[in-house]
Amino acid sequence: MREKGIDIRGHTPRLTSEFDAEEWDLVISMGCGVDCTDFDVDRDWKIPDPVGRSLEEYRATRDNLEMRVRDLVAEAEAVE
Question: Which residues does the UniProt record annotate as the domain Phosphotyrosine protein phosphatase I (predicted)?
Answer without folding.
Answer: 1-72
